[in-house]
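@channel anyone free to eyeball this complex?
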Amino acid sequence: MTSQRYLIIGGVAGGMSAATRLRRLDEHAQITVLERGGYVSFANCGLPYYLGGVIEERSSLLLQTPESLGSRFGLDVRVLTEAVAIDRAARTVTARDLATGDETVLPYDALVLSPGSVPIRPPMEGGDRTLTLWNIDDVDTAMARLEVQPRTALVIGAGFIGLEMVENLVHRGLEVTLVELAEQVLPPIDPEMAGPVAQRLIDAGVDVRLGTRVVAIGADTATLSDGSTVPAEFVLGSVGVRPETSLAAAAGLELGERGGIRVDEHLRTSDPHIWAIGDAVEKVDAITGEPRIVALAGLANRHGRLAADAITGREIRVRDALGTAVVGVMGLTVATTGWNEKLLRARGRDIRVFHTHPASHTGYYPGAEGMSLKLLVDAGTDAILGAQGVGGEGVDKRIDVIATAMAGGLTASELADLELAYAPQYSSAKDPVNMLGYVAMNAADGLTPSIQWHEVDAAVDAGATVLDVRNPGEVADGAIPGSLRIPLDELRDRLDELPEGRLIVHCKVGQRGHTAVRLLAQHGRDAVNLDGGYLTWKAGIDARELVADAAELAA
Amino acid sequence: MTSQRYLIIGGVAGGMSAATRLRRLDEHAQITVLERGGYVSFANCGLPYYLGGVIEERSSLLLQTPESLGSRFGLDVRVLTEAVAIDRAARTVTARDLATGDETVLPYDALVLSPGSVPIRPPMEGGDRTLTLWNIDDVDTAMARLEVQPRTALVIGAGFIGLEMVENLVHRGLEVTLVELAEQVLPPIDPEMAGPVAQRLIDAGVDVRLGTRVVAIGADTATLSDGSTVPAEFVLGSVGVRPETSLAAAAGLELGERGGIRVDEHLRTSDPHIWAIGDAVEKVDAITGEPRIVALAGLANRHGRLAADAITGREIRVRDALGTAVVGVMGLTVATTGWNEKLLRARGRDIRVFHTHPASHTGYYPGAEGMSLKLLVDAGTDAILGAQGVGGEGVDKRIDVIATAMAGGLTASELADLELAYAPQYSSAKDPVNMLGYVAMNAADGLTPSIQWHEVDAAVDAGATVLDVRNPGEVADGAIPGSLRIPLDELRDRLDELPEGRLIVHCKVGQRGHTAVRLLAQHGRDAVNLDGGYLTWKAGIDARELVADAAELAA
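replying in thread with the prediction:
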């Protein structure tokens, strides 16, 4: 048997995972990796932190070199080498040496495409001053630009990477403006969850402009769509990425409806000798079963390994994508998995929504940090559709647990059953994830109907009364206008003070509200619990205010 | 309809969860809680930390009072009141006021037993000097004893709570001796995982005596079974607890084979009007389906709520118990779920065992902390049977994720598929849990056979050669005696240097060993990977040394 020739295009996360796995599975194959950039296996997720000086050494970003991969895995890794054409009939790829322009034709038995994605650059005047942070060359350019000591920076796009850019530029001491087209930061999560993140940025001195876009970039300022001008000596853009499909499209491979390379359940493209993985490829969404573009390193690595398995004839199973992600923003952790409320409601899904505000661990052990969690549940099946968390310590843990529960097919109510590690400095006897399960179970069982923060106004207009069951000290720190106030511990004795009609009950976080709703329901009252209590309502209202403030600033 | 009379015996975790849930479900019931101690709903898991001064205020431990529970939930909570007899035919309980000795007969429609557990006190000379930390009275007594400023302390029992005692006494500045009957600390985990915990204690100045028991306690010293004497001005014991079943047994309720109260799948005892929950009750083990005693606060809380649901006619499902637990020891986090290797091997289960040594997050982002993980897998089904973690940041997260995967019925290989939240300061693109999945999959697929640290000697005796593929710098820091050393990156070119026969390949943690085994296997060699690499082997050998050292100290 002659040795197999495996050719891989793209030498970062997915491509290099495929190449090293292929070697482990086939010691005798010829394995060649072509990488257009100057580096392979670099730490793309670390780039913003190198820019910010948190990661001090550039060499830390370079995890492997062509030489190290050659000696350990017998790989022929060619950097600064672009695959310019695929001849599918001949099963060859034309590779161009970007230094010399020389072209070589490389035959393959199996070809893996891992070309990744490219940052989107909206066309605008001065747009060429917008730098991105997608590879080592990008960060080298950005670092060079910072050498002239700009005082001000503009970041375009408040997604996960955009906020990492902001944090790191603030860390470097720059005065930063953040412009985002959506009316919130972090569009993948919901506005009432994102509001506190925007506020944290504002508190750190960032000029946050929501519902706005950049229309022109000048020498050291930029003009926004609302007509205002912001300082912008240094400009970074992170408004999204698009799959790098040019080579695949030119070779006539099928693309999907979302514009990524289409692959089957074995990661194989429309050509039986070509597999594709990573950001360039459409995944299957775990919630809808529909095609989805997800640019996440974990999936790229995983699929690289699976493609190698498939190529060497092993059975593989590609799991549908949840899109779990996390970002650190000025000491806050923000994490999400699955779908958000905006998308689910836009799809007309019948959902239940739960907000909680637990502490990272028991209140009696020092150092507990607060967090807000949100759970999205199918109203018909109790299936978990998504979760979000914002706060201090332990947010990433809870989202990981929920993502795992989703992978295991647990219902929202079953979160109550999870046996999670408890000692007072790590969690509570009822972990925040258990509590979400309890809340979901009370709703699933019809025990405590609830209402969302954005539904309160309409309910009040329809005649409902807001009943605040917090203590006077809590009420003094802020309350819903027009609410009736009776502390929970007095409620049982003051039922006759309640007006006719529906009662929207709330406490600070929802737990006493639940007790109050149960009490009232058993006294024959129509009572609903304001989900997430005053804290969620306030976060939602504040998030709206931020947008209004931004509009006012522009006017 | 007359209102129901619910009587609950025991007012801490399980009992109070049952009482408050009963109120939420039945506003009109009479709910009475009898508590033998002086306090209800206290923070029993916080007691060691109050002793150590980490929790400064005693009041922090008292989460609720009879008064607060009365006003909020309309509960009749009677502390210092002992249930002395149950008349099952009459459906009454005789309650004795411990202050006055007065007895009252209380009728019930439903009775909930949540009497908890009591610390075991091995009989010995001077044993009455051994204090425990099981309730508020215990901690008050201990604090009073500490007022005379003892310089030395003896802790008997190196389980989870024993180690919390040690940490807190060290924190208070005492010179601490720890005596444990088993040949390791933390018997619920395996010795090679527990070794580094014992070493950490030794490094903190604790005199750790393994495989030893206390035979007599004198005025300010104690005598051990090996004949040695240790200082012991202050003595705390934590050698386990037994279910408090005296009342239940006297009432003729069925007990189980493990000595706990027997309940059915609806938490009902052998009497249809009596339910039981918490430490006193036998749970069903999630791995074996057999009865099991598990004294964990999370299960008590959960079952209290479920019992209330069952009593009020709701459908409940009690999930079998995994026994997930965590403890902090001198900056180390130790967590476990499910079964350990010792128990599984003693049962003759056909298992696969995996050790890894990942970092809490990417190496290129500052502050990553190391950890060791262990996964126990059914060799036939790939089902996860247990997991253990020891290390810094993020150990609790990984054990929680694995416990959730177990609850969801995911196989070990499916851990590779989990989409966990990744950014460089939180995890790696392949999270440590994903890596366990990859390792498990390589074993399940037969790609990389492995050998455990405790099997090396026998394999070498049978003619195998240990092949160390680490770099010379690593080898210089310590190596397995008699090993052949060829760095992985040179292995492909130096195959002819290898001796005949089986090769036991190892690197530092197992990953390069896996690559080497794949390489060697495809060159026709019989090669196995030393699971967990040098680090696990060293931890196992060191753990044995600790016991030998202790024996030598005694001799």
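from a first look: The longest strand of chain B covers residues 371-378.
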